[in-house]
Amino acid sequence: MYDAETQTRETHPFATFERMESQVRSYSRSFPAIFDRAEGSWQYDSQGKGYIDFLTGCSVLNYGHNHPAMKRALLDYIESNGVVHSLDMHSRAKAEFLEALEDKILKPRGMTYRAQFTGPTGANAVEAAMKLARKVTGRTNIIAFTNGFHGVTLGALSATGNSHHRGGAHTPLNGVTRMPYCGYFGDDVDTAAQLEQMLSDPSGGVDEPAAIIVEPVQGEGGLNVASAEWLRKIEKIAHKHGALFIIDDIQAGCGRTGSFFSFEGMGLEPDIVTMAKSLSGMGLPMALVLVKPEFDQWSPGEHNGTFRGNCHAFVTAKAAIDTFWADDSFAADIQKKGERLRKRLREIALANRGVVKGIKGRGMMCGLDVGSSEISDPVVDEAFKRGLIIETSGAHDQILKVLAPLNITDADLDAGLDILADCVAEVAGRQALGSAA
Asked: In sequence order, which residues have a C-beta less than 8 Å from that of residue 127 and are 6 or more positions away?
């Protein structure tokens, strides 16, 4: 470290950030570089060094950096003096996005949701979904699950399980009952049956829920995957007990697991779906609540958000849908790439049985379970030195999580996985030497 009081940006490249930016920053501590440009699967720092990006803004950039179709659409819109910000007024950009969403995403899947634009983050979408469920049902309790992550604003944080983030609230987090996620106690314990029993028992101690909110794949929680059978049981339980069924598809959606929605093909019809992250396609802030028409019971202006009218995000979101989701070919490519990723991860796991406990996740949302941050942190550090950006997740930061662009070339995917394999092997070797000593 250095003394920010005595050293300036001329003497240290990070002096401005140390002097001006809050201590709350986190990713910059794992990746100490000043990034200058990005294209496709690569980011480049101010010294010109390239890094393969296996983080992609935590699944914000599912289509890579600066995709030419989205960039061209945005530049043309700006050049034509298109409306930038419209609150919730009508705009051409919003109309064209909604039409693309309806025609190419919802109708082909037999969905009839209405779209509610909230503030620009996933947490805003979750807040709106929970608030709407409470309004519709007249109840207050929300059921969420162990290792769930739904955001860090107070309402969303109440549904988030992570103690580090919850501890940052410094106020009681109320209105949520935590239940065990699929497989939390192992494969032999049916946690859906446990939930049903507790809700059905007048002395079970669980207040009647307004909603049950769940991630089909828990991104920040450690790439835990819920089975289709378990999710169907949870949906049935919600409706039996008069609650809305909410799927949080903020990180797992927009193709990350192999289909546009992570719950496709499971026989589910969630009452509310929350989306954000890669929805705009290019990293522009945008969040969305998809709600069944019968539950769209807001009064005008009852829930709002200043930046719910980000027209630049509407433009790039439409371009993303038009480019990637006009037919099933992109989803098929993701499935193939996911299989390639999983095959390589299995090879890394087999070669490093002493430290790799298993493979987690689904589709292009997979990673290695290395047990603890004692292994994952040095792997992340070593990978960065070698030109790979990869992060961790899970209660103990035990998962090395691969969130590569969905359209990454096979060559770039393999190159990044080669670096990951070498780094896991090196750290495993260090651990073996330390144990021997």
From this structure: 118, 151, 153, 155, 156
